[in-house]
Amino acid sequence: AREADDRMVLRLLDASGQTVERVFTAAADDEPMLRHLAPVTSAGDWRTKAVDAAHASYVAGDIEAVPAAFADGCVHRWAAPGATATNEEWLAGLASHHEIFDGISLEGLYSMTGEYSDGNVWTASWFTWTGTVRATGEKVEFLAHCSFRWDGDEIVENLVFFDAERFEGLVGSAEGE
After folding, report:
1. Which of 24, 80, 123, 130 could hold 51 in an S-S bridge, CB 3.0 to 4.6 Å?
2. DSSP letters spanning 88-106
3. Residue 115 CB coordination number (10 Å)
4. pLDDT tens digits, residue range 21-34?
5. What pTM, to 2 d.p., does this model score?
């Protein structure tokens, strides 16, 4: 949860059911590790705006507009770490969301772009994905995090983190599997 511009709190539930909490605050500008590891970030740059536009197109169901910034060979990963999808497979998956769910939204969307000391540029987004299963009327939500790696002016890698097993179960049951 983003509690303030300079404070993020991560709460995880471990296998025993105990909540584990970590608090992240900004380091001092003269902190050596910050200078070495921390990205130079922005929330208003053109890359962040391009990712937010892709999110808005997805929510609107305008799947054809989503891949505007994505390279032809972009690699999409979610769920199993080794599983990948092409742009075509990924877009088909996004389109199917609108067949299975109604009222899709990304609540609390926050995106920012960081340029890291290793030369990589990533735009990250955090949000709560919400929708209603058309077949049952059940409203569902998922905490999600997406990271998009840039090469010049194109996204070449897309990582999505959420409860994929639960999501795929809802999709499977809605499709009658």
Report:
1. 123
2. HHHHHHHHHHHHHEEEEEE
3. 16
4. 777 666 555 555 55
5. 0.76
